[in-house]
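Batch 3, record 17
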Amino acid sequence: MNLKFNKNWQLSESLVTPEKEYRSRTRRDFIKTLGFGAAGALLLPNQSSAATEGFPSKLNPNYSGKELKVTPFNYVTSYNNFYEFGMDKGDPVTNSNQGWKTDPWTVEIRGLARNTGKFDVNALVRKVGGIEQRVYRHRCVEAWSMVIPWDGFQLSKLIALAEPTADAKYITFTSFEDSKNAVGQQDSNFGWPYIEGLRLDEAQNELAFMATGVFGKPLPNQNGAPLRLVTPWKYGFKGAKSIVLIEFTQEAPLNTWQRIRSEEYGFYANVNPKVDHPRWSQGSERVIGGGVFNGRQSTLMFNGYERQVASLYKGMDLKRYY
Amino acid sequence: MNFVTRLIRSEIIFYSLLSLPALWPLYPFFTGNYTVLADPTKYLLHHFGFWACLLLVTVLSFTPLKVLFPKLFFLTALNSQRRAVGVASFVYACIHLGFQFLHESGWPTLVHDLRKPFILIGVLAFLILTLLAATSFNAAVRWLGARTWKSMHRFAYLAAFLVAIHQALGRKIFPKQVIWIFLPLLILEIVRLIYRYKKKTVSAVVLS
Ligand code: HEM
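Prediction for the assembled complex:
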Protein backbone atom coordinates (compact mmCIF):
# COMPACT_ATOMS: atom_id res chain seq x y z
CA MET A 1 0.00 0.00 0.00
CA ASN A 2 1.19 3.46 -0.82
CA LEU A 3 0.15 6.92 0.21
CA LYS A 4 -2.48 8.47 -2.03
CA PHE A 5 -0.31 11.45 -2.82
CA ASN A 6 2.58 9.23 -3.74
CA LYS A 7 2.34 10.32 -7.37
CA ASN A 8 2.77 13.94 -6.50
CA TRP A 9 5.86 13.63 -4.46
CA GLN A 10 7.64 10.85 -6.23
CA LEU A 11 8.56 12.98 -9.20
CA SER A 12 8.40 11.24 -12.54
CA GLU A 13 12.19 11.03 -12.41
CA SER A 14 12.14 8.23 -9.92
CA LEU A 15 9.47 6.23 -11.71
CA VAL A 16 11.20 5.63 -15.01
CA THR A 17 13.69 2.84 -15.52
CA PRO A 18 16.97 4.32 -14.41
CA GLU A 19 19.02 2.63 -17.13
CA LYS A 20 17.11 4.21 -19.99
CA GLU A 21 17.11 7.43 -18.12
CA TYR A 22 20.68 8.01 -17.24
CA ARG A 23 22.04 6.86 -20.58
CA SER A 24 20.24 9.62 -22.39
CA ARG A 25 21.14 12.37 -20.00
CA THR A 26 23.86 14.93 -20.26
CA ARG A 27 25.99 15.85 -17.33
CA ARG A 28 24.32 19.20 -16.98
CA ASP A 29 20.81 17.74 -16.62
CA PHE A 30 22.23 15.28 -14.22
CA ILE A 31 23.59 18.02 -12.00
CA LYS A 32 20.31 19.88 -12.17
CA THR A 33 18.35 16.92 -10.94
CA LEU A 34 20.71 16.61 -8.03
CA GLY A 35 19.44 19.68 -6.33
CA PHE A 36 15.96 20.90 -5.76
CA GLY A 37 15.01 24.32 -7.00
CA ALA A 38 17.33 27.00 -5.78
CA ALA A 39 19.72 24.55 -4.15
CA GLY A 40 20.17 22.89 -7.54
CA ALA A 41 21.09 26.17 -9.15
CA LEU A 42 23.64 26.80 -6.44
CA LEU A 43 25.35 23.51 -7.08
CA LEU A 44 25.93 24.09 -10.77
CA PRO A 45 28.98 26.31 -11.04
CA ASN A 46 31.21 24.49 -8.59
CA GLN A 47 30.74 20.94 -9.73
CA SER A 48 34.09 19.40 -10.62
CA SER A 49 34.32 16.44 -12.91
CA ALA A 50 35.96 13.57 -10.98
CA ALA A 51 37.40 10.57 -12.85
CA THR A 52 36.00 10.59 -16.36
CA GLU A 53 38.19 7.89 -17.90
CA GLY A 54 36.37 4.99 -19.51
CA PHE A 55 32.83 6.35 -19.72
CA PRO A 56 30.46 5.22 -21.04
CA SER A 57 30.97 1.82 -19.46
CA LYS A 58 29.46 -1.55 -20.38
CA LEU A 59 27.30 -3.57 -18.03
CA ASN A 60 29.05 -6.75 -16.92
CA PRO A 61 26.36 -9.44 -17.44
CA ASN A 62 27.75 -11.55 -14.58
CA TYR A 63 26.84 -8.81 -12.13
CA SER A 64 23.80 -7.33 -13.81
CA GLY A 65 21.60 -7.75 -10.75
CA LYS A 66 18.70 -8.47 -13.10
CA GLU A 67 16.46 -9.61 -10.28
CA LEU A 68 17.09 -6.39 -8.34
CA LYS A 69 15.11 -3.16 -8.50
CA VAL A 70 17.51 -0.25 -8.89
CA THR A 71 17.05 2.58 -6.40
CA PRO A 72 16.14 5.87 -8.11
CA PHE A 73 19.12 8.01 -8.99
CA ASN A 74 17.92 10.96 -6.94
CA TYR A 75 17.86 8.92 -3.76
CA VAL A 76 21.27 7.39 -4.36
CA THR A 77 22.74 10.87 -4.78
CA SER A 78 20.93 12.75 -2.01
CA TYR A 79 20.73 10.24 0.85
CA ASN A 80 24.35 9.80 1.88
CA ASN A 81 26.46 9.05 4.89
CA PHE A 82 29.64 10.99 4.22
CA TYR A 83 30.60 12.46 7.59
CA GLU A 84 33.37 14.52 6.03
CA PHE A 85 30.55 16.74 4.81
CA GLY A 86 28.16 16.69 7.74
CA MET A 87 26.19 14.42 10.01
CA ASP A 88 22.83 14.40 8.25
CA LYS A 89 21.97 12.37 5.17
CA GLY A 90 21.19 15.52 3.23
CA ASP A 91 24.40 17.34 4.16
CA PRO A 92 26.83 15.74 1.68
CA VAL A 93 24.85 16.65 -1.44
CA THR A 94 25.01 20.30 -0.43
CA ASN A 95 28.32 20.59 1.36
CA SER A 96 30.47 18.54 -1.00
CA ASN A 97 29.47 20.69 -3.94
CA GLN A 98 30.61 24.05 -2.65
CA GLY A 99 33.99 24.18 -4.30
CA TRP A 100 35.60 20.94 -3.23
CA LYS A 101 37.66 19.73 -6.20
CA THR A 102 37.93 16.04 -7.08
CA ASP A 103 39.74 16.67 -10.36
CA PRO A 104 42.66 16.28 -10.75
CA TRP A 105 43.09 13.53 -8.14
CA THR A 106 46.14 11.53 -7.15
CA VAL A 107 46.08 8.13 -5.49
CA GLU A 108 49.16 6.76 -3.80
CA ILE A 109 49.87 3.05 -3.65
CA ARG A 110 52.26 2.26 -0.86
CA GLY A 111 53.57 -0.43 1.45
CA LEU A 112 54.39 -4.08 0.91
CA ALA A 113 54.14 -4.17 -2.87
CA ARG A 114 56.50 -4.07 -5.80
CA ASN A 115 54.81 -1.39 -7.86
CA THR A 116 54.17 1.50 -5.56
CA GLY A 117 53.91 5.18 -6.37
CA LYS A 118 51.55 8.01 -7.05
CA PHE A 119 49.02 7.78 -9.84
CA ASP A 120 46.56 10.12 -11.41
CA VAL A 121 43.18 8.48 -10.99
CA ASN A 122 42.40 8.53 -14.72
CA ALA A 123 45.79 7.03 -15.52
CA LEU A 124 45.11 4.33 -12.94
CA VAL A 125 41.80 3.47 -14.61
CA ARG A 126 43.62 3.13 -17.93
CA LYS A 127 46.24 0.90 -16.34
CA VAL A 128 43.71 -1.55 -14.96
CA GLY A 129 42.03 -1.75 -18.35
CA GLY A 130 39.09 0.60 -18.08
CA ILE A 131 35.75 0.33 -16.33
CA GLU A 132 32.58 -1.74 -16.38
CA GLN A 133 29.19 -1.48 -14.74
CA ARG A 134 27.85 -3.74 -11.99
CA VAL A 135 24.57 -3.61 -10.13
CA TYR A 136 25.07 -4.36 -6.45
CA ARG A 137 22.97 -4.39 -3.33
CA HIS A 138 24.05 -1.81 -0.76
CA ARG A 139 23.26 -2.39 2.92
CA CYS A 140 23.99 0.24 5.56
CA VAL A 141 24.69 -0.75 9.15
CA GLU A 142 21.80 1.57 10.05
CA ALA A 143 19.45 -1.03 8.54
CA TRP A 144 18.58 0.60 5.24
CA SER A 145 19.38 -0.62 1.77
CA MET A 146 19.64 0.42 -1.86
CA VAL A 147 20.45 -1.19 -5.19
CA ILE A 148 23.13 0.75 -7.04
CA PRO A 149 24.60 0.49 -10.53
CA TRP A 150 28.28 1.24 -9.98
CA ASP A 151 30.88 1.92 -12.64
CA GLY A 152 34.48 1.01 -11.91
CA PHE A 153 36.89 -1.91 -11.89
CA GLN A 154 37.46 -5.05 -9.89
CA LEU A 155 39.81 -4.32 -6.99
CA SER A 156 41.84 -7.46 -7.74
CA LYS A 157 43.05 -5.80 -10.96
CA LEU A 158 44.62 -3.00 -8.98
CA ILE A 159 46.16 -5.49 -6.58
CA ALA A 160 47.62 -7.47 -9.48
CA LEU A 161 49.08 -4.26 -10.80
CA ALA A 162 50.66 -3.38 -7.46
CA GLU A 163 52.07 -6.90 -6.92
CA PRO A 164 51.95 -7.12 -3.13
CA THR A 165 54.79 -9.08 -1.53
CA ALA A 166 54.24 -12.29 0.45
CA ASP A 167 54.23 -10.32 3.71
CA ALA A 168 51.21 -8.27 2.70
CA LYS A 169 48.14 -9.56 4.55
CA TYR A 170 45.91 -6.51 4.59
CA ILE A 171 45.01 -3.58 2.41
CA THR A 172 44.22 -0.18 3.89
CA PHE A 173 42.21 2.60 2.27
CA THR A 174 42.61 6.18 3.43
CA SER A 175 40.19 8.92 2.44
CA PHE A 176 41.13 12.50 1.64
CA GLU A 177 41.68 15.15 4.28
CA ASP A 178 40.79 18.76 3.55
CA SER A 179 39.16 20.50 6.47
CA LYS A 180 38.88 23.74 4.53
CA ASN A 181 36.37 22.29 2.09
CA ALA A 182 35.07 19.33 4.07
CA VAL A 183 33.10 21.05 6.82
CA GLY A 184 32.61 17.80 8.72
CA GLN A 185 36.37 17.52 9.16
CA GLN A 186 36.38 20.72 11.17
CA ASP A 187 35.03 18.58 13.99
CA SER A 188 38.29 16.96 15.02
CA ASN A 189 36.73 14.53 17.51
CA PHE A 190 36.10 12.12 14.71
CA GLY A 191 39.82 11.62 14.07
CA TRP A 192 40.32 12.25 10.37
CA PRO A 193 41.15 10.96 7.82
CA TYR A 194 38.70 8.10 7.44
CA ILE A 195 40.35 4.70 7.32
CA GLU A 196 39.06 1.34 6.18
CA GLY A 197 40.67 -1.96 5.39
CA LEU A 198 40.22 -5.50 4.11
CA ARG A 199 42.05 -8.74 4.49
CA LEU A 200 44.00 -9.23 1.29
CA ASP A 201 41.99 -12.32 0.32
CA GLU A 202 38.77 -10.39 0.86
CA ALA A 203 40.10 -7.63 -1.34
CA GLN A 204 40.89 -10.18 -4.05
CA ASN A 205 37.36 -11.54 -4.04
CA GLU A 206 35.61 -11.06 -7.36
CA LEU A 207 32.97 -8.79 -5.77
CA ALA A 208 35.34 -6.21 -4.28
CA PHE A 209 35.09 -3.21 -6.56
CA MET A 210 36.62 0.23 -6.96
CA ALA A 211 33.93 2.62 -8.16
CA THR A 212 34.57 5.74 -10.21
CA GLY A 213 30.95 6.22 -11.20
CA VAL A 214 27.26 5.54 -10.57
CA PHE A 215 24.44 5.25 -13.10
CA GLY A 216 26.93 5.41 -15.93
CA LYS A 217 28.33 8.79 -14.92
CA PRO A 218 31.41 9.82 -12.95
CA LEU A 219 30.73 9.74 -9.22
CA PRO A 220 29.07 12.85 -7.85
CA ASN A 221 31.13 14.34 -5.03
CA GLN A 222 28.67 13.22 -2.34
CA ASN A 223 29.05 9.58 -3.38
CA GLY A 224 32.79 9.59 -2.77
CA ALA A 225 34.29 10.99 -5.97
CA PRO A 226 36.47 10.18 -7.71
CA LEU A 227 37.36 6.75 -6.33
CA ARG A 228 35.69 4.68 -3.65
CA LEU A 229 35.59 1.13 -2.39
CA VAL A 230 32.47 -1.03 -2.83
CA THR A 231 32.18 -4.32 -0.92
CA PRO A 232 28.53 -5.31 -1.31
CA TRP A 233 28.58 -8.16 1.23
CA LYS A 234 29.68 -5.76 3.97
CA TYR A 235 27.97 -2.85 5.66
CA GLY A 236 28.28 0.39 3.76
CA PHE A 237 30.77 2.03 6.10
CA LYS A 238 33.46 -0.32 4.79
CA GLY A 239 33.27 1.52 1.49
CA ALA A 240 35.89 4.22 1.99
CA LYS A 241 35.14 7.26 -0.15
CA SER A 242 37.38 9.67 -2.04
CA ILE A 243 40.45 7.50 -1.54
CA VAL A 244 43.93 9.06 -1.67
CA LEU A 245 46.02 6.23 -0.28
CA ILE A 246 46.00 2.45 -0.73
CA GLU A 247 48.51 0.65 1.42
CA PHE A 248 49.54 -2.99 1.71
CA THR A 249 50.33 -3.96 5.28
CA GLN A 250 51.08 -6.94 7.44
CA GLU A 251 48.80 -5.89 10.30
CA ALA A 252 45.10 -5.16 10.17
CA PRO A 253 44.43 -1.43 10.21
CA LEU A 254 42.20 0.04 12.91
CA ASN A 255 39.29 1.20 10.80
CA THR A 256 37.64 4.49 11.78
CA TRP A 257 34.33 3.24 13.15
CA GLN A 258 35.99 0.46 15.10
CA ARG A 259 38.29 3.04 16.66
CA ILE A 260 35.33 5.26 17.58
CA ARG A 261 33.10 2.49 18.97
CA SER A 262 34.61 -0.96 18.88
CA GLU A 263 31.66 -2.52 20.70
CA GLU A 264 29.38 -1.52 17.82
CA TYR A 265 31.55 -1.71 14.72
CA GLY A 266 34.17 -4.30 13.97
CA PHE A 267 36.76 -4.86 11.31
CA TYR A 268 34.78 -7.35 9.24
CA ALA A 269 31.36 -5.67 9.20
CA ASN A 270 29.87 -8.48 7.14
CA VAL A 271 26.13 -8.13 6.61
CA ASN A 272 24.64 -10.66 8.99
CA PRO A 273 20.94 -10.73 9.91
CA LYS A 274 21.72 -12.86 12.97
CA VAL A 275 24.12 -10.47 14.68
CA ASP A 276 22.32 -7.39 15.99
CA HIS A 277 23.77 -3.95 16.35
CA PRO A 278 23.05 -2.32 19.75
CA ARG A 279 20.76 0.22 18.11
CA TRP A 280 19.49 -1.49 14.98
CA SER A 281 18.09 -4.96 14.50
CA GLN A 282 19.90 -6.37 11.51
CA GLY A 283 17.29 -8.99 10.66
CA SER A 284 15.53 -6.70 8.22
CA GLU A 285 16.14 -3.48 6.38
CA ARG A 286 14.27 -0.44 5.08
CA VAL A 287 14.32 -0.20 1.33
CA ILE A 288 15.20 3.34 0.36
CA GLY A 289 12.49 4.64 -1.92
CA GLY A 290 9.94 2.16 -0.56
CA GLY A 291 7.65 4.92 0.67
CA VAL A 292 5.91 5.12 4.02
CA PHE A 293 4.15 1.76 4.14
CA ASN A 294 6.05 -0.80 2.09
CA GLY A 295 9.63 -0.11 2.85
CA ARG A 296 10.88 -3.25 4.61
CA GLN A 297 12.44 -6.54 3.57
CA SER A 298 14.44 -9.31 5.21
CA THR A 299 18.19 -8.97 5.25
CA LEU A 300 20.12 -11.77 3.57
CA MET A 301 23.27 -13.40 4.90
CA PHE A 302 26.27 -11.57 3.42
CA ASN A 303 23.68 -9.31 1.81
CA GLY A 304 22.77 -12.03 -0.65
CA TYR A 305 26.35 -12.76 -1.72
CA GLU A 306 26.87 -15.87 0.38
CA ARG A 307 27.82 -17.97 -2.64
CA GLN A 308 30.70 -15.67 -3.56
CA VAL A 309 32.12 -14.84 -0.13
CA ALA A 310 31.11 -17.42 2.50
CA SER A 311 34.32 -19.41 1.95
CA LEU A 312 36.38 -16.42 3.13
CA TYR A 313 35.01 -16.84 6.64
CA LYS A 314 34.94 -20.60 7.02
CA GLY A 315 35.40 -21.62 10.63
CA MET A 316 35.21 -18.05 11.96
CA ASP A 317 32.85 -17.13 14.77
CA LEU A 318 30.93 -14.33 13.06
CA LYS A 319 29.37 -13.23 16.35
CA ARG A 320 32.84 -12.48 17.62
CA TYR A 321 34.26 -11.09 14.39
CA TYR A 322 31.42 -8.70 13.57
CA MET B 1 -0.04 44.06 25.49
CA ASN B 2 -3.60 43.00 26.02
CA PHE B 3 -3.61 41.91 22.44
CA VAL B 4 -0.73 39.48 22.94
CA THR B 5 -2.35 38.11 26.07
CA ARG B 6 -5.60 37.61 24.25
CA LEU B 7 -3.83 35.86 21.40
CA ILE B 8 -2.13 33.45 23.76
CA ARG B 9 -5.31 32.84 25.67
CA SER B 10 -7.35 32.26 22.53
CA GLU B 11 -7.81 28.52 22.32
CA ILE B 12 -8.15 28.43 18.55
CA ILE B 13 -5.00 30.39 17.88
CA PHE B 14 -2.96 28.62 20.50
CA TYR B 15 -3.98 25.16 19.33
CA SER B 16 -3.30 26.13 15.73
CA LEU B 17 0.18 27.24 16.74
CA LEU B 18 0.74 23.98 18.55
CA SER B 19 -0.33 21.93 15.54
CA LEU B 20 1.81 23.79 13.00
CA PRO B 21 4.88 21.56 13.57
CA ALA B 22 2.69 18.60 12.65
CA LEU B 23 1.84 20.15 9.30
CA TRP B 24 5.08 21.47 7.96
CA PRO B 25 6.83 18.09 7.62
CA LEU B 26 4.42 17.55 4.73
CA TYR B 27 6.17 20.31 2.82
CA PRO B 28 9.21 18.34 1.59
CA PHE B 29 6.85 15.66 0.28
CA PHE B 30 5.45 18.13 -2.21
CA THR B 31 8.67 19.89 -3.13
CA GLY B 32 10.56 16.70 -3.89
CA ASN B 33 13.28 16.83 -1.27
CA TYR B 34 14.95 13.57 -2.18
CA THR B 35 16.80 13.18 1.08
CA VAL B 36 13.46 13.12 2.87
CA LEU B 37 11.65 11.04 0.25
CA ALA B 38 14.37 8.41 0.29
CA ASP B 39 13.46 7.46 3.85
CA PRO B 40 10.25 9.27 4.79
CA THR B 41 9.47 7.39 8.01
CA LYS B 42 12.88 8.16 9.45
CA TYR B 43 12.42 11.82 8.70
CA LEU B 44 8.94 11.86 10.28
CA LEU B 45 10.12 9.84 13.27
CA HIS B 46 12.86 12.37 13.94
CA HIS B 47 10.65 15.35 13.31
CA PHE B 48 7.95 14.32 15.77
CA GLY B 49 10.43 13.13 18.39
CA PHE B 50 12.17 16.47 18.13
CA TRP B 51 8.93 18.41 18.65
CA ALA B 52 7.73 16.22 21.50
CA CYS B 53 11.03 16.95 23.17
CA LEU B 54 11.00 20.69 22.41
CA LEU B 55 7.46 21.13 23.71
CA LEU B 56 8.32 19.22 26.88
CA VAL B 57 11.30 21.47 27.53
CA THR B 58 9.18 24.52 26.70
CA VAL B 59 6.46 23.69 29.18
CA LEU B 60 9.02 22.98 31.88
CA SER B 61 10.61 26.37 31.37
CA PHE B 62 7.35 28.27 32.04
CA THR B 63 7.49 27.96 35.81
CA PRO B 64 11.11 29.06 36.30
CA LEU B 65 10.56 31.93 33.86
CA LYS B 66 7.57 33.03 35.86
CA VAL B 67 9.49 32.84 39.12
CA LEU B 68 12.30 34.91 37.66
CA PHE B 69 10.13 37.44 35.85
CA PRO B 70 6.90 37.57 37.82
CA LYS B 71 5.77 40.80 36.20
CA LEU B 72 6.03 39.78 32.54
CA PHE B 73 2.42 39.78 31.40
CA PHE B 74 2.69 37.22 28.61
CA LEU B 75 4.31 34.69 30.92
CA THR B 76 1.15 34.68 32.98
CA ALA B 77 -0.86 34.07 29.84
CA LEU B 78 1.53 31.33 28.71
CA ASN B 79 1.37 29.75 32.11
CA SER B 80 -2.37 29.40 31.78
CA GLN B 81 -1.73 27.31 28.62
CA ARG B 82 0.69 24.94 30.27
CA ARG B 83 -1.66 22.04 30.07
CA ALA B 84 -2.14 22.50 26.32
CA VAL B 85 1.62 22.55 25.70
CA GLY B 86 2.18 19.51 27.90
CA VAL B 87 -0.57 17.52 26.23
CA ALA B 88 0.74 18.59 22.81
CA SER B 89 4.14 17.18 23.77
CA PHE B 90 2.41 13.88 24.58
CA VAL B 91 0.49 13.90 21.30
CA TYR B 92 3.71 14.47 19.35
CA ALA B 93 5.36 11.65 21.30
CA CYS B 94 2.44 9.39 20.28
CA ILE B 95 2.96 10.27 16.63
CA HIS B 96 6.71 9.71 17.09
CA LEU B 97 5.93 6.23 18.42
CA GLY B 98 3.48 5.66 15.56
CA PHE B 99 6.18 6.37 13.01
CA GLN B 100 8.58 4.16 14.88
CA PHE B 101 6.01 1.40 14.28
CA LEU B 102 5.92 2.09 10.57
CA HIS B 103 9.67 2.49 10.47
CA GLU B 104 10.54 -0.73 12.27
CA SER B 105 7.32 -2.63 11.53
CA GLY B 106 5.38 -3.02 14.70
CA TRP B 107 5.17 -4.60 18.13
CA PRO B 108 7.54 -7.56 17.75
CA THR B 109 10.38 -5.23 16.86
CA LEU B 110 9.51 -2.81 19.64
CA VAL B 111 9.54 -5.58 22.23
CA HIS B 112 12.74 -6.96 20.76
CA ASP B 113 14.22 -3.46 20.79
CA LEU B 114 13.56 -2.96 24.50
CA ARG B 115 16.97 -4.47 25.13
CA LYS B 116 18.51 -1.43 23.50
CA PRO B 117 19.06 1.17 26.22
CA PHE B 118 17.96 4.14 24.13
CA ILE B 119 14.63 2.51 23.25
CA LEU B 120 13.99 1.39 26.82
CA ILE B 121 14.65 4.91 28.06
CA GLY B 122 12.36 6.35 25.37
CA VAL B 123 9.58 3.98 26.42
CA LEU B 124 10.01 4.96 30.09
CA ALA B 125 9.75 8.63 29.17
CA PHE B 126 6.70 7.85 27.09
CA LEU B 127 5.03 6.02 29.99
CA ILE B 128 5.57 9.02 32.23
CA LEU B 129 4.11 11.37 29.62
CA THR B 130 1.12 9.02 29.25
CA LEU B 131 0.53 9.07 32.97
CA LEU B 132 0.74 12.84 33.09
CA ALA B 133 -1.51 13.32 30.06
CA ALA B 134 -4.05 10.90 31.55
CA THR B 135 -4.18 12.94 34.74
CA SER B 136 -4.17 16.33 33.07
CA PHE B 137 -7.92 16.88 33.49
CA ASN B 138 -9.42 18.98 36.24
CA ALA B 139 -11.30 15.97 37.52
CA ALA B 140 -7.99 14.14 37.96
CA VAL B 141 -6.59 17.01 40.01
CA ARG B 142 -9.62 16.87 42.29
CA TRP B 143 -9.54 13.11 42.51
CA LEU B 144 -5.84 12.94 43.37
CA GLY B 145 -5.76 16.02 45.56
CA ALA B 146 -3.71 19.04 44.55
CA ARG B 147 -0.60 17.99 46.48
CA THR B 148 -0.37 14.46 45.16
CA TRP B 149 -1.14 15.75 41.68
CA LYS B 150 1.60 18.32 41.90
CA SER B 151 4.28 15.96 43.14
CA MET B 152 3.22 13.43 40.55
CA HIS B 153 3.56 15.98 37.78
CA ARG B 154 7.11 16.67 38.88
CA PHE B 155 7.88 13.44 37.05
CA ALA B 156 7.86 15.61 33.94
CA TYR B 157 11.41 16.61 34.89
CA LEU B 158 12.43 12.98 35.00
CA ALA B 159 10.78 12.49 31.61
CA ALA B 160 12.78 15.39 30.18
CA PHE B 161 15.98 13.97 31.62
CA LEU B 162 15.20 10.55 30.09
CA VAL B 163 14.43 12.13 26.73
CA ALA B 164 17.79 13.91 26.75
CA ILE B 165 19.52 10.57 27.23
CA HIS B 166 17.23 8.83 24.73
CA GLN B 167 18.15 11.38 22.13
CA ALA B 168 21.86 11.43 22.91
CA LEU B 169 22.16 7.64 22.70
CA GLY B 170 19.98 7.29 19.62
CA ARG B 171 22.55 8.55 17.16
CA LYS B 172 25.86 7.22 15.96
CA ILE B 173 27.58 10.39 17.08
CA PHE B 174 26.48 12.62 19.95
CA PRO B 175 23.91 15.04 18.49
CA LYS B 176 24.77 18.58 19.52
CA GLN B 177 21.11 19.61 19.41
CA VAL B 178 20.70 17.93 22.79
CA ILE B 179 22.84 20.71 24.25
CA TRP B 180 20.99 23.62 22.78
CA ILE B 181 17.63 22.12 23.67
CA PHE B 182 18.40 21.25 27.26
CA LEU B 183 21.07 23.72 28.34
CA PRO B 184 18.72 26.73 28.56
CA LEU B 185 16.33 24.77 30.75
CA LEU B 186 19.18 23.60 32.93
CA ILE B 187 20.43 27.16 33.37
CA LEU B 188 16.93 28.40 34.15
CA GLU B 189 16.50 25.73 36.79
CA ILE B 190 19.83 26.50 38.40
CA VAL B 191 19.10 30.23 38.47
CA ARG B 192 15.71 29.49 39.93
CA LEU B 193 17.24 27.36 42.70
CA ILE B 194 19.74 30.07 43.58
CA TYR B 195 16.96 32.61 43.55
CA ARG B 196 14.80 30.51 45.84
CA TYR B 197 17.70 29.93 48.21
CA LYS B 198 18.43 33.65 48.38
CA LYS B 199 14.79 34.50 48.96
CA LYS B 200 14.62 31.98 51.78
CA THR B 201 17.69 33.38 53.52
CA VAL B 202 16.41 36.92 53.06
CA SER B 203 13.05 36.09 54.63
CA ALA B 204 14.82 34.21 57.42
CA VAL B 205 16.86 37.32 58.19
CA VAL B 206 13.74 39.46 58.17
CA LEU B 207 11.96 37.09 60.55
CA SER B 208 14.70 36.90 63.15
C1 HEM C 1 7.62 5.29 23.18
C2 HEM C 1 8.84 5.00 23.13
C3 HEM C 1 9.82 5.61 22.15
C4 HEM C 1 10.43 4.95 21.11
C5 HEM C 1 10.26 3.49 20.74
C6 HEM C 1 11.28 5.91 20.45
C7 HEM C 1 12.09 5.60 19.36
C8 HEM C 1 12.97 6.47 18.79
C9 HEM C 1 13.83 6.16 17.67
C10 HEM C 1 13.89 4.81 16.97
C11 HEM C 1 14.56 7.25 17.39
C12 HEM C 1 15.55 7.43 16.24
C13 HEM C 1 16.94 7.05 16.50
C14 HEM C 1 17.73 7.07 15.24
O1 HEM C 1 18.11 8.16 14.81
O2 HEM C 1 17.93 6.02 14.64
C15 HEM C 1 14.19 8.27 18.33
C16 HEM C 1 14.72 9.53 18.36
C17 HEM C 1 14.23 10.55 19.16
N1 HEM C 1 13.20 10.46 20.07
FE1 HEM C 1 12.19 8.80 20.56
N2 HEM C 1 11.16 7.12 21.09
C18 HEM C 1 10.26 6.99 22.11
C19 HEM C 1 9.86 7.99 22.97
C20 HEM C 1 10.23 9.32 22.87
C21 HEM C 1 9.69 10.41 23.68
C22 HEM C 1 8.65 10.24 24.76
C23 HEM C 1 10.32 11.55 23.24
C24 HEM C 1 10.14 12.99 23.68
C25 HEM C 1 9.24 13.48 24.45
C26 HEM C 1 11.25 11.19 22.20
C27 HEM C 1 12.08 12.07 21.56
C28 HEM C 1 13.02 11.72 20.60
C29 HEM C 1 13.97 12.62 20.03
C30 HEM C 1 14.11 14.10 20.34
C31 HEM C 1 14.74 11.88 19.13
C32 HEM C 1 15.90 12.38 18.30
C33 HEM C 1 15.50 12.81 16.96
C34 HEM C 1 16.70 13.23 16.15
O3 HEM C 1 17.74 12.60 16.30
O4 HEM C 1 16.56 14.20 15.41
N3 HEM C 1 11.17 9.82 22.00
N4 HEM C 1 13.20 7.77 19.17
